Amino acid sequence: MSLTFDGILPAVRRAFHDVRASVPENAVLVNRDLSGRVRLIVREVHETNSELRPLLERVAHDLHRNLGPHGVPASGALLFEPDFDAVLASSAPFPLYDDASDVLVADRLALETDWNVADVSPSTPRIVFYSVKGGVGRSTALAAAAWGLAERGERVLVVDLDLESPGLSTTILPDDRRPTFGLVDWLVEDQVGAGDLVARDMVAASGLHSDQDVLVVPAHGADPGEYIAKLGRAWVPKVESDGNRIPWATRVHRVLTELEQRHDRTVVLLDARSGLDEIAALSVVGLGAELVLAFATDAPTTWSAYGILFEHWKKLGVAHRIRDRLQVVGSLVPGEDPADYMRAVREHAWSTFLATMYDDAPPTGASGVVSEPRDLFSFDLSEDSAPHAPWPVRWSPSFASLATLHGRLAHTDATQVDAAFGRLISEIATFTGRRDTIDP
Predict the structure, then answer these.
(1) d(Cα 303, Cα 307) in Å, to the nearest integer?
(2) Quick one: which H or E segment has residue 268?
(3) pTM of the predicted protein model
(4) Where in the chain are the domains?
(5) pLDDT digits (tens, 9 = 90+) for 380-400
(6) Nearby residues of 438 by Cβ (< 8 Å), 6 or more positions away
């Protein structure tokens, strides 16, 4: 049987096994291109290295022989790069071996994504509502949270990042309130340096709350126009005149900062696209969110998907930078046996975090006493302040339909919202209050 994509990196590790001790750090980059084919990019200074070059040529021959359709002829598999540091800077590499960084790997992806976790936005707190699967009540919970935070005096900005399935922005914005443009329009116009043409007419007051209005940036404006054509260009990195490429997440990060300052917001709620694709996951790691709400139901498919995502972050070496911002939300909690449901969500969440995001507990010493380092990021199953301990969102027929969401929230009272979303809203309010206390 021919080697498939999942066998590429194990085969590369085997090829390097006997020579890796002779490979200087930051000297070799394993480049896996869009088709999955592998080449070795080497710092040019080693091109005439009489000891290292023969070893790398041997690796190249092994890869050609063992990678099957994912290999290239050995004569073209070894590339010596004069600006090696620039290649590293543009590729977001990760170690080939978990225990060392002597050999690095770069995955070339269609969206040219950068998996470095963005620093927390220093001004307005951003909260991402995310789920690996749709249909879990994420957008409804976001709308309710926006209403509840406005009820507490927060100046809320809601941004619809679910661009391929826009729904939230069109259901909490009545037809007569929708702005001319949306986020997709800005992303397209920014490509040619014309983002300011639409930036001032892409925000609308929702009317969701009578006293402290909630502002909304929709995916598209009142007239979507050529939305599909625009959407196909929205994810493309912007190429500046000097050749510098600015990825999608960096551009969205910038426009969010501009909107926060222009409209004097105290909190930003981001409705992220669901799924495991790069755009969905980059909404979590790339936009400077301080809190990421990971919506989950008690379903094996949910935890399998979160496990895949967390394992990917762990492999890339970014898990430690995002894990303390995560918070599981147990969604669609049924009215019957809610405690059993939440217990199951907690147990599955804990198992997933334990396998991928939490630090391994130190070994027990001879005395039987464990001395844990202060920076150990790990929690017991029962720890209520842990990221895996779910905040509940109860299923409610009153809020089950997005189609009537705006009218429902605009004419409701705090008691009705609190019954389904009270814990979520109060936790977010506590979080934003803590941020206000900490920040100057």
Answers:
(1) 6
(2) strand 267-271
(3) 0.83
(4) 5-107, 126-438
(5) 999 999 999 999 998 876 666
(6) none
